[in-house]
Amino acid sequence: MTNYLEFEKPLAEIEGKAEELRALARANPDMDVEKEAAGLDKKAADMLKDLYKNLTPWRKCQVARHPDRPHCKDYIDALFTEYTPLAGDRNFADDHAVMGGLARLYGTPVMVIGHEKGHDTKSRIERNFGMARPEGYRKAIRLMEMAHRFKLPVITLVDTPGAYPGKGAEERGQSEAIARSTEKCLQIGVPLISVIIGEGGSGGAVAFATANRVAMLEHSVYSVISPEGCASILWKDSEKMREAAEALRLTAQDLEKLGVIDKIIPEPLGGAQRDRKGTIESVGKALEVMLKDLSKRTPQQLIQDRRKKFLGMGSKGLAA
């Protein structure tokens, strides 16, 4: 069953009518409805194309948060072989919002780390909706240190609304853990590639995405704060999230112009949720190309490249 977003409701009606006609035909084999159903299919396809032709930033936020969009575990299961999960921060606990471990990407040994949101109510609660606690960032630091020691490239898959803001997380040093994770990203002498596969929210995302190469899926978003949070702070009204989304310049297209990201990975028409397999394959191909390019560099070149990239960030495209 397709989950439709708010702005896709007219499309839902047309596709629903086409399915109803075909259901009637299955119940009554003598009925010939294929011509009418095909006409509705064409109308739906044209509407889908129009809807996704020029998505507003707020609509892109909705697409990035779609519950059927592939999540970190889906990418790991489909792209990586010999995946061996590694758990715990060796200090407090294992954070299920962050998953990671040793694996192979098309035969190349790597360390993969990512936020996992979950796919149903039970798993979303277990994964804390992809919002990491301090132990999640400390686990990521441990895995990055291991990757550095064994000269393994690091791949991070970012999909989080932000770091968890709970009392316990703050008591255990949330901000310090995020800062240490960001610092570790800048220190390791191996290729570090990050892909924003859904939401890239605040420091919770930067802690994984301070990379040599940062790519985003076409309809992903990446920002210092969510549109709702920004609207609540600036206008004292979370309903002004559409205006906030416009002002934040959080789309992949805006961020590429600003030099914040390096690559946009195209999504299927209608978003990643309409062709999960195709989306995952596109991400895999992009990772393979970026990894091949970075593998030619020395550890010192990789570190200098990363530092230079982030020191100069935002200078590109400011006049746009």
Question: What is the 3D shape?
Answer: globular
Number of strands: 8
CATH homologous group name of the largest domain: 2-enoyl-CoA Hydratase, Chain A, domain 1
- CATH class type of the largest domain: Alpha Beta
Major β-sheet profile? 8 strands, mixed
Quaternary state of this entry equals: single chain
Helix count, DSSP H or I runs of 4 or more residues: 14
N-to-C order of helices and strands: HHHHEEEHHEHHEHEEHHHEHH
What is the CATH T-level topology of the largest domain?
2-enoyl-CoA Hydratase, Chain A, domain 1
Mean pLDDT: 92
Helix content: 40-55%
Corresponding CATH architecture of the largest domain: Alpha-Beta Complex
> Helix- and strand-based class?
alpha/beta
For the termini, the CA-CA separation is 41 Å
Stretches where pLDDT falls below 50 for ≥5 residues? none
The radius of gyration is: 21 Å
What's the domain count? 2
What percentage of the residues does DSSP assign to strands (E)? Answer: 15-25%
Question: What's the helix and strand layout?
Answer:
Blueprint (H helix, E strand, L loop, with lengths): L8 H19 L6 H20 L3 H8 L7 H8 E6 L12 E8 L2 E8 L5 H6 L7 H16 L4 E7 L6 H5 L2 H14 L4 E10 H8 L3 E5 L3 E3 L3 H8 L6 H8 L3 H7 L4 E3 L10 H19 L4 H13 L9
Parallel strand pairs: 3-4, 4-5, 5-6, 5-7, 6-8
Antiparallel strand pairs: 1-2, 2-3
